[in-house]
Amino acid sequence: MDKELVIFDLDQTLVDTSALEALRRQRLWSNVYRDIPKTICYESLKESISFLRNKNIKVAIFTSSPKAYAQKVLAYHALEYDLLLGYHDVKNRKPSAEGFLKILDYFSIKPERAISFGDQHTDILASKKADIDSVACLWGNVDNNALIDSKPDIILDKSYDIKKLIE
Known about the structure:
Strand 7, helix 7 and strand 8 form a beta-alpha-beta unit.
């Protein structure tokens, strides 16, 4: 892979945070933070991120979740990154390209030198609007029809396929 930047979504792409969804919907943030240990980092993602960073490929995370929450989840799982954008860092949420464009600008990287990984059709649509190659991650969803219908550039069934793709 000849990319300089990889952009990941957080929830259901890097980390299975489904155990927190009900609490998040109720905005019970102290309970959400208490239950972060119930989340699970998907198989081989820590190794994939380390592999990327060892190759001097920048790792950004762009999530529709609040940044404070994302920081806590990422710290709990010891997932390293170069830049994190959350809900409050953009005016327009996905499928707007705003967050992706901010990330490209931050690193001064052209869209063709980046690739994004996400579990929702909005991740794919936002990536496409920014002219970034998109990867649909099927492991975090129950129903992947909208994700596949968004016409990602690549579809991966298992999280360990990320490392295979980037090697």
